[in-house]
Specification:
The chain is an alpha/beta fold. It folds into 4 domains: about 10-60, N-terminal domain of TfIIb; about 70-140 and about 340-535, Rossmann fold (3-Layer(aba) Sandwich); about 145-335, Dimethylsulfoxide Reductase, domain 2, CATH 3.40.228; about 580-695, Barwin-like endoglucanases (Beta Barrel), CATH 2.40.40.20. It contains 23 helices and 30 strands. The chain has a 7-stranded mixed beta sheet, covered by helices on one side. The chain is globular, with a radius of gyration of 24 Å. The N and C termini lie far apart (about 55 Å). Mean pLDDT is about 95; it is low at about 1-5. The chain binds iron/sulfur cluster (SF4). The site of iron/sulfur cluster has 14 residues, from helix 1.
């Protein structure tokens, strides 16, 4: 494969976030055998990489990764090196024992938003066909489920961004809600810079004055948990000022009268009281958005990780629909998915209620189609299972054994100490991972698997662009791919066929399983992705050009019209009171990724972001009596976390912020509230009530 980086460089994509930056891998004589080099040809990041992507090869080194299976031979004994036969035999025995003793739903499966499409597909099929369990979900539930539910409700289809990122630079006004792109996916910031260079305006909604917010023409800093009221207040002003696009509403939507009635209760002064955003700023935001000829609203985890995340997304979509900023060129609503394969991972069956191709597990026609591809009876497929937090919370109860792939809930789940206890209470836990994560350390069997640079597979970026990661390096002899693992385990459990270890063979089956479904990949092939550097789904047949832009002619609902959903503001799952008077919000920093299982093993990243901290306003710091750098305890109804104070006026005085990448006493998820959104089952990571104590 020839590439600008050199004749022998292998073009591929970053293993971390959903931007899926293009990069190349060049062979070197030094450990780990490859280095990351720029690939300017890939149109999304055009060669730019953040520190995580630049240093991604470091985790391939045998010095930091797992190189052979580990087995705990007695319940309280240590994890000890073992061969694959012993390890897989132990997993088969553990899962079989739980099933024999308590039924198929006593076996749980937990996947990850970093798994390739092929792995997510194979894992969902393995759970339903081999184990016969309904108890499967994945950590992507914690990432994008509220936006996905909002998309489905309004547009009839969930693809995070219904247009390419390049369109962001050419629209008239962007409202960016709860996204700190400058830290979470820095190469994407260029699109906001270009937007402003092109004469467009940027409005950022965030309780913190982040590096992204500093780029904005207008920064709105609402109280955490009030984004829904803010969106309703802006839509109220749109109506009050006669800026509704009546023609668009009439021709392309349904449900406006009920939605309009709901927003009319959210008059500006009331919204100012709820959100803390002054009325003049509300008016200015509406003026900027409505005066621009085109506009977009982009949301991320801020408004989505709330117990009303689906309604909050719905309120922002309603704003787009009321102003005619949807289903038209350079306008629309999009969600900036976070995890590497957060988009593809939610399309092919590792979600509790889903079959491949984004089909519904409760739809008889969908069951029949997928069962035919799988060669099983439709009736043999279990129904929907529990959502991610509910599944983790059931461990040790009616779920007795768990197979976990590519996830580290000991750090990343809400109310993490409780979830750690649930994992410890299992009869049997098997973890497949590349490193000995905090969750893998609790397992009875640890299965070491290959990494991005050592295997081939597809991911689907936040734009809905299906991409090919290529094998560039021979893995250590003691590790296997996840597909090889599932192939071997299925055979031990009586399924010799149906789980091929070859990724392209799995992808070809996925194409057939997705054919005719909402996320139709049937026209996409490895060869085509390689030739075109990505293909946008839906792509329903070979020769189809793919679909970079959705909804321009019609929305994916039965009547082709977008649906307004009437929503009203409600409080967060937990409000402040005399005992817990401060709000906590959580998030990420630029040099670490998610639970940090990989990035905490990279020296350069650790140097840049060595540990947790508590960001708080000088007035709050003074009230607590803590100085910058001093240890501060943050206490919620669920637990306590201790980390150094970082005093800054870039945050609201009623709010503290903690990044969630670390285990131990600074584990932010000791504090978070698992109050679930009633539709998406998203936990409320973004807001809970805490009190602060000096911890020196
Ligand atoms: Fe990787 Fe995301 Fe950084 Fe790009 S922005 S290099 S995909 S972590």
């Amino acid at each position: 494969m020839t590439d600008a980086a050199g004749d022998d460089a292998v073009p591929t994509h970053c293993p971390y976030c959903a931007l899926q930056c293009g990069m190349s891998l060049r062979r070197t004589a030094d450990d780990p055998g490859v280095e990351v080099v720029e690939r300017p040809e890939f149109p999304v990041n055009r060669g730019a990489l953040c520190g995580k992507g630049r240093t991604a090869a470091a985790v391939l080194s045998s010095r930091v990764r797992l190189t052979g299976p580990l087995v705990r031979r007695s319940k309280d004994g240590p994890l000890e090196p073992a061969g694959w036969d012993e390890a897989l035999g132990a997993v088969a025995a553990g899962l079989t024992a739980a099933r024999a003793g308590h039924g198929p739903d006593a076996v749980g499966v937990f996947g990850g938003g970093g798994l390739t499409n092929e792995k997510a597909y194979a894992l969902g099929k393995f759970a339903r066909v081999v184990l016969g369990t309904s108890q499967i979900d994945y950590n992507g539930r914690f990432c994008m489920s509220s936006a996905a539910a909002g998309h489905q409700r309004a547009f009839g289809l969930d693809r995070g961004m219904p247009f390419p990122l390049a369109d962001v630079a050419r629209t008239g006004c962007v409202i960016l809600v709860g996204s700190n792109l400058a830290e979470t996916m820095p190469p994407a910031l260029r699109y906001l810079t270009e937007l402003r260079e092109n004469g467009g305006t940027l409005i950022v909604v965030d309780p913190r004055r982040t590096r992204t917010a500093e780029q904005a023409d207008l920064h709105l800093a609402p109280r955490p948990g009030t984004d829904l009221a803010l969106a309703l207040g802006l839509t109220h002003l749109v109506v009050a000022r006669g800026r509704t696009d009546e023609e668009f509403v009439r021709e392309r939507t349904t449900g406006w009268p009920a939605a309009r009635a709901a927003v009319m209760a959210h008059w500006p002064e009331h919204v100012e009281r709820v959100t803390g955003v002054p009325v003049p700023q509300l008016r200015e935001a509406v003026r900027l958005f409505c005066d621009a000829p085109t506009g977009m609203v982009l949301t991320a985890r801020g408004p989505e990780q709330q117990s009303k995340g689906t309604d909050t997304v719905g309120a922002w979509i309603n704003l787009c629909l009321a102003t005619g900023r949807a289903g038209r060129p350079l306008s629309g609503y999009g969600c900036l998915t976070g995890q590497g394969n957060g988009q593809g991972g939610r399309e092919h069956g590792q979600k509790a209620d889903q079959l491949p191709g984004y089909r519904k597990l409760t739809d008889p026609a969908a069951r029949e189609h997928v069962a035919r591809v799988w060669g099983v009876a439709p009736d043999s497929l279990p129904g929907p299972g529990r959502s991610a937090y509910e599944l983790l919370d059931a461990l040790g109860g009616d779920v007795r054994a768990l197979l976990l792939m590519g996830s580290n809930p000991v750090v990343s789940a809400p109310r993490a100490a409780h979830i750690e206890g649930r994992l410890r209470s299992l009869d049997f836990l098997a973890v497949a991972d590349v490193v000995l994560s905090e969750t893998a350390a609790l397992a009875d069997v640890v299965l070491p698997v290959t990494q991005w640079a050592e295997e081939t597979g597809t991911t689907t970026s936040l734009e809905g662009r299906v991409l090919l990661r290529r094998r560039a390096l021979t893995p250590p002899p003691g590790v296997r791919t996840d597909l090889q693992l599932l192939h071997g385990l299925a055979a031990l459990l009586g399924h010799e066929k149906g789980f091929p270890p070859d990724p392209e063979e799995v992808f070809d089956e996925l194409r057939r399983a997705s054919a005719g479904g909402p996320a139709d990949y049937s026209g996409i092939t490895y060869r085509r992705i390689a030739a075109e550097d990505g293909v946008f789904w839906p792509c329903p047949k070979e020769g189809h050009p793919g679909t970079p832009r959705l909804f321009l002619d019609r929305f994916a609902t039965e009547d082709g019209r977008a649906r307004f959903v009437p929503v009203v503001h409600r409080p967060a799952g937990e409000e402040t009171d005399a005992e817990y008077p401060v709000l906590l919000t959580t998030g990420r920093v630029v040099a670490q990724y998610q639970s940090g299982a990989q990035t905490r093993r990279v020296a350069e990243l650790n140097e840049a972001a060595p540990g947790p901290f508590v960001e708080l306003h000088p007035r709050l710091a003074e009230r607590v009596g803590v100085a910058d750098g001093e240890l501060l305890a943050v206490v919620s109804r669920r637990g306590r976390a201790v980390a150094p104070a970082r005093v800054t006026d870039a945050i609201r005085a009623d709010t503290v912020f903690m990044p969630f990448h670390w285990p131990g006493e600074g584990r932010a998820n000791n504090l978070t509230n698992p109050a679930l959104d009633p539709v998406s089952r998203m936990p409320e990571f973004k807001v809970c009530a805490v009190r602060l104590e000096r911890a020196g």
